[in-house]
Amino acid sequence: MEVKVDHLDLWYTDFHALKDVNASFGQKRITAIIGPSGCGKSTLLRTFNRMNDLVEGVRTSGQVLIDGTNILAQDTDLVGLRKRVGMVFQRPNPFPLSVYENIVFGPRVHSEMKKSALDEIVQQSLQSVLLWDELKDRLDESALGLSLEQRQRLCIARLIAVKPDMLLMDEPCSTLDPQATQRIEELMRELKNNYTILIVTHNMQQAARVSDDTGFMLLGELVEFAQTQEVFTAPKDKRTEEYITGRYG
Amino acid sequence: MERHFDQELKDLNKEILQMGVFAQEAIFKSVEALERKDKELARGVIDDDVRIDRLELIIDERCVDLIARYQPMAKDLRFITTGMKINVELERIADIAVDIAQRTLELVDKPLLKPLVDIPKLTGIAQNMVRMAIDAFVQGDGDLARKVLLSDSEADSLRNLIQKELVEDYMVKEGDTAPRAVQLLLIARFLERICDHATNIAEDVIYMVQAEVVRHHPEKL
To answer: Any CB–CB contact under 8 A between A107 and chain B?
Structure first.
């Protein structure tokens, strides 16, 4: 899956939230987007699955190309797009349903499937997020009874069930304790073998630990975008250096 | 806005400067002892090495502590890791000064083969290179560091000249002067190694300031 952003601008009514953003995102790599609050990180993230459409007064110019197709076009199949590009949020948001029903919800939306096929999807999805052993005997229990970490893993499993190409993660660990965060980060490293991952995080050390590439945003602009090792040891832009060394603000 | 971390970096800078001062003093005194035939001065170099070793450990621990506590990035990370490497280089330089002092103690009761001219000259080059390299680090001056690298060839040439003279005039021609000539040859070799360590420091400073790796890449100079 090739993902490219080409001269992207976005406005929330009169507020210019994204300014001429250009980037190419590596396949099966983890890209972190960092920057101060309000810089446009989550806005950029939500562009990839058109979640910004839900905000009144939003308008865009430029292109977001997935495999050469501009997903910002009017005629884009949004359901299909959101199957290919899944998202997890800061606060895990499982449906108030059983573990099993959470995972099969997506596949049922997209096609008619036999129970045996759904069972297999549930097992594979939970295995891929290392939850199968913990939950295989609790599939009928409410997802709301799980720990925060388990809920977040379940949300990722829910995405995986519909076989996406890209995973968007908006501060996926910010409500988790350090040990749970570490385990989710390990999971991300496993998942990148199969998916392109874009993560927004306030935690610079997390960005440095898990990502292959990092983009620094400031006031709607993508200031610098390079391999993570380069951004955190020798950033080219002074603004990036000021931010990551804590001298910004 | 100055952070508490900035003060800690300044403190580290001062400690490495102090280490540099100790190393330069040791180089100077070790050869001065030879010129003045001063056993006490030579022994002083050997005894003072303990305080240099102690400071090396303090600096090393401080760098590790800064990395653990602050998870520094970019230029701060480069500064601290370069500081760790320079710390080791300066301690090696001080050890070499001890080696020179020990050779001096071997020679001090014996007549000089000839008035010392080239060895003090090489000492001056070595001291100057170390001083410039440390100044480059403390001031964050990549251009000054590059000047250190350019001085190394002068040190190599002078060492070769000293070697040629000692071998041809005192080891081959006059057999009974050979032991003294060997000691002087070793001193010249030690001084040239100090210049190499100064070069290493300068290369590390270039990386620190300009994020450019010039070590093992002479074409980049």
So the answer is: no
